[in-house]
Write a structure and sequence with these properties.
mainly alpha, single chain, kinase activity, transmembrane, 123 residues, cell membrane, Helix Hairpins, DAGK, kinase
């Protein structure tokens, strides 16, 4: 009983490859993710410099991952919206604004958390 379906491990490896390709496209093409990557590197350096706790590291890494992941979803939504309706349309604009708003919310919370972690280090 032969099957033309790929073995599970091959399928998973291909999926990881596609995900990695998507991440590279995001980093190479999107200015906002480049800025977020620079900020992520800066707070990572700050984490080592200030010897933040294990819990602070976990929270900081979760926030970096959350902001950058939501930015990826926002970018994907923009690509879909532009593909579906290339010319300006109010509903497409609304969709893009809402997706950007989600990134903004995550970024604000990330900034608050960074303040909670690092401001006391300067006192």
């Amino acid at each position: 009983m032969g099957s033309s379906k790929e073995p599970f491990i091959i399928n998973r490896l291909k999926s990881v490859g596609y995900a990695f390709k998507g991440m590279l496209i995001l980093v190479k093409t999107e200015a906002s993710i480049k800025i977020q990557l620079v900020i992520a590197i800066a707070v990572t350096i700050a984490g080592f410099y200030f010897d933040i706790s294990r819990t602070e590291w976990m929270i900081q890494l979760v926030m970096i991952g959350m902001v950058m992941s939501i930015e990826g979803v926002n970018t994907a939504l923009e690509y879909i919206a532009d593909f579906i309706h290339p010319e300006h349309h109010p509903k497409i604009g609304l969709i893009k604004d809402v997706a950007a708003g989600a990134v903004f919310i995550a970024s604000i919370i990330a900034c608050i958390i960074a303040g909670l972690i690092y401001v006391p280090k300067f006192s």
